[in-house]
Each structure stands twice: as C-alpha cells, then as structure tokens.
Specification:
The protein is mainly β. The chain has four domains: 154 residues, no CATH class; 119 residues, no CATH class; 99 residues, no CATH class; 50 residues. It is built from two helices and 22 strands. A hairpin with a 2-residue loop joins strand 19 and strand 20. Helix 1 crosses helix 2. The longest helix has 7 residues.
Length: 493
C-alpha cells in the first residue's frame, strides 16, 4: 500500500541557472575632421546600455549598445581632445531547459577595455562586456506535510522544522527621468560635453501591500570643456528619483533591486540668466526580486512497527538566512613621479571587474611637464575587501571615494568601491515523498523483546526507536537522563 502525504505548497521562484558570459567587441573609428590628430591616449570611458532581453526557443537572447568616449592628447602635446564611437551587439546562449515563460534578469559590466592608435587619424578599441544572467521559474514549494486522513496504520514520523527565505516574485519596470540642472556656483561654465558616468543608487525601499516604494538617486560625473579652455573639467550631480513598482506577492517582506541603464540624452541649453543648464533625459530598467521568510514543517523519515515500510525521498533546497549589507573594497597605492613632472591637471578613475574578495581599478592622470607639455600616466590598482563575506551575491560595484595626495616625489592614490551584497546561507532538507507499506509481511510483535538495553554511542533516539520497534516518545519517557548508559528501549506498537 502506498501512502501520499497531504501537502501544503506555496508559489515561489526558483533559479534554474546563473550564467556569466562575455561579449567581445572590436571597434574602429576615424577621428572627425574637426578634431586634432591623436598624439597619446589619455583615457577611454565605456558605457553599456541594455536594449533587449528575452527567452525564446530554448535560448537566452540579449542585446545592448556600447558607447566609448576616447580622450587624447594632441600631437603637439598642448591640448586635450575627444571623440566617441558606438556599436550595437547581441548574443544568444543555448539553454535547453528554459521555457519562454521563465524570467530573465540581466546585468552588464565591463571586464576590460584596450585602445590602440593605428595612425594619428584612426583608433581601434577592444571591449569585453560581461553579461551576468539569472533565469528563474515559478514553481510550487512544499512547506508542510501531514499523513492522509484516511490512514489507519500506526506510523511514526520524524518532523523537521526550518526557516527558509522564498523568492516570491520577479518583476521589472522602466524608469524615465527628465531634469534640467544648473551648474553649481563656482564651477567653470561648460562649452562642450565630453562624456559622463552614471550610477543608479537605491537609498530606500519600502513595501506597502503589493507595491514597492523605491527611492534613490542617479550619481552623474560629467566631463566637459569649459569656455575658452582646452583642458577637460568634471562636475558631479545628484538626481533624486522615486518609483512605485508592482510586486507579484502581497506578502513580500523584502525586495532586492538593481537598475540597468537603457539610454540617456544629455545636452547644454542656455538659461534665462545666460548661464548654461544641463538638459538630462535618462531611461533605465529596474529589475526586482521580492521575497519573504517561510516556516517549513517537513517529514524527513518514517517507519511502522507493524510492517515493513519503505520511503521515497527528495531533496528540497532551503535558504536558511538572508541579509543585505554593503560590500566594500579599498585601495591605497603610491605612484612614483617622473623627473619632468610639474603638476597634476586631472584624474580619471575607473573600476574594473570586482568580486566580494577583491577588485581591479585603474586611474588615468593628465599631467603637465616642467617645459609646459601635456603627458599622461596610467596605473592599475588592486582593491581588497575590508572584511570577509560568506559568498555574497553582489550587484554592480560603484566608485564611492577617490582622492590623490602629493607626498614629495610620489602621488598617493586612495580609492573605494561599494556594492550591495546578499549574504545567504543555503542548505538542503531530504523530505519523504511517499510511504510504501507491505501489509502482507506484518511483523510478529511477540517475537521482539519487550525491553532492549542499548549502549548507544552515536545513535540518536530516533535511530534506536526505529531499530528496536519503539517510538521516540516511549524512549524519552523511560529514560529520564539520556546521557546515562545503557538506554532502555521499550517495544511499542
């Protein structure tokens, strides 16, 4: 006779696959006629935009656009110029287990970039883009089990209680931001925009019923040429935003959010007072994973004292704990200055690939020599974590602080980066799916001793009760102190 448990299930999202794939781009561009010839590359600034992501025909399809801005020193070593190039890309990854109805979440990052001057009017850029993909599927998760009400056979059950964190919903929403920003007092007025760096930072998250109230800011570092100057400046802006995002589950307790830029348009317009105003239009995709804590009450073993009993098992993955904290990386390195160094004009830091343990970064320095020439220096840096973490899944890192201090014949470079990290401790529970009872081979209970003395070493109360035709309750009732030996195990039905 086969018994099936009465099970209670809840709907949740389970990750089918997490992939980290690379996209290689080779870009070439001719310097526009209005720009100076290239003498030496100063800095290369990449930006990656998400254009499309979908699951179809058992494959993952992603598409995006790479925009690269190149700053360079002209051949006369007297001024800095720039130009930009862009290239669209798409990639398909086979994943036979996925369905079109599954959920795909995606994050782009730059793994590496290298520029080469082919001639004073032509340049090539090799760019490696990392695509971090997570494919999830809605499924039912068993949270409790009971014997069927019609069962008449005495069966002993071993129950395990545990807490787990369930991902209850995956959603996304497009974000649009339109602002006109005056340049701060004291900043040089701009004449031409060179490039920018954007970071979407989530500051507050609050769940109200089935909606997530999201508050954050866009941190923008703008590079530009001031009026009547040939050296780039930079200015930092903060643009606040808020969004309401619909969640799938009304019982969600927490939400994890990361934001991918999809496009932006930034231009200079004249204000009423004659000062320049920055006209900003930003578009991005907010990807959300909401979840809640769930108590599990599962049957992990069973037996009968009246007849042979066989169990079929399955393993259920549980997330025992989940907490969000910042993952911080830091670096402090010294750069020896060449003899011809006179002054540092500007610096362009950039983060490379980062994990919770360490990361890479670089800084491009625009310098002036003692004879008035412009030259550049590039240094690679290694960032290390300020504390150890238990394998957190991190969102994209962002630069949080950067400064350069001159110390005699050296420059001291200090850099910090930060990302939100989800620290989770996972495990598995082996639960019973079905019981098969052999009613034709019933035990002769009279042939078993009424009481058995056991000199137990590592055996648990459950194991002794199961082996000697007893029950855990009867063993505990007969032995007031389970640390004493022997342990007496009474026969029960």
């Amino acid at each position: 006779m086969e018994l099936h448990f009465k099970e209670t299930s809840v709907q949740a999202c389970q990750d089918l696959a997490r992939l980290n794939k690379s996209v290689q781009l080779a870009m070439e561009s001719v310097v526009p006629d209005t720009k100076d010839d290239i003498g030496r590359i100063l800095s290369v600034r990449p930006e990656i935009y998400l254009k499309n992501k979908e699951l179809r025909n058992k494959a993952v399809s992603v598409a995006g656009e790479a925009l690269v801005t190149v700053l360079y020193i002209n051949e006369e070593e007297t001024a800095v110029s720039f130009f930009s190039m862009s290239q669209s890309f798409s990639q398909d990854y086979e994943l036979p287990s996925v369905l079109d109805s599954d959920c795909l979440q995606l994050h782009f990052s730059v793994n590496g970039i290298q520029a080469r001057v082919m001639n004073p009017r032509k340049l090539s850029v090799d760019l490696e883009i990392a695509a971090d993909l997570t494919v999830s599927r809605s499924a039912y998760v068993v949270v409790s089990q009971e014997l069927p009400e019609a069962n008449q056979t005495p069966i002993h059950l071993r129950r395990t209680e545990a807490n787990t964190f369930l991902t209850t919903g995956i959603s996304e929403k497009s974000i649009s931001i339109n602002e006109q920003l005056p340049f701060p007092e004291g900043e040089e007025q701009p004449e031409e925009i060179v490039g920018k760096e954007l970071r979407y930072v989530v500051r507050e998250k609050e769940i109200v019923s089935s909606r997530l109230l999201l508050k954050g800011e866009v941190l923008m570092n703008l590079f530009y040429f001031p009026q009547r100057q040939q050296l780039p400046h930079n200015c930092r802006f903060s643009i606040p935003f808020s969004q309401l995002i619909d969640l799938v589950d009304e019982q969600s307790e927490t939400a994890d959010v990361w934001i991918e830029p999809t496009s932006d348009y930034i231009s200079l317009i004249d204000g009423l007072d004659g000062r320049k105003i920055l006209d900003v239009e930003l578009h991005a995709l907010a990807q959300t994973r909401s979840g809640r804590n769930q108590k599990l009450q599962l049957i992990t073993d069973a037996y009968s004292n009246q007849m042979p009993c066989e169990c079929s098992f399955s393993e259920q993955v549980v997330c025992e704990s989940l907490r969000e904290l910042p993952v911080r990386l830091r670096s402090e390195e010294r750069i020896e200055l060449p003899e011809e160094f006179q002054e540092l004009l500007s610096a362009y830091p950039a983060l490379g690939p980062c994990t919770a343990e360490k990361g890479s970064a670089s800084v491009d320095l625009l310098c002036r020599s003692k004879d008035g020439r412009l030259f550049s220096m590039r240094r690679n840096l290694t960032l290390v974590a300020d504390q150890n973490h238990d394998d957190p899944a991190t969102q994209s890192f962002r630069l949080t602080d950067f400064q350069i201090i001159r110390d005699g014949t050296q420059l001291v470079v200090q850099m910090g980066a930060e990302a939100a990290g989800l620290i989770q401790k996972s495990g598995t529970i082996r639960r019973v799916d079905t019981l098969t009872l052999d009613e034709e081979q019933r035990f002769d209970m009279m042939s078993f001793p009424s009481l058995t003395a056991v000199w137990a070493q590592t055996e648990s109360v459950w194991e002794m009760a199961k082996q000697y035709h007893s029950s855990p309750e009867a063993v505990c009732e007969m032995n007031q102190d389970l640390s004493q030996r022997p342990i007496f195990v009474p026969k029960t039905k």
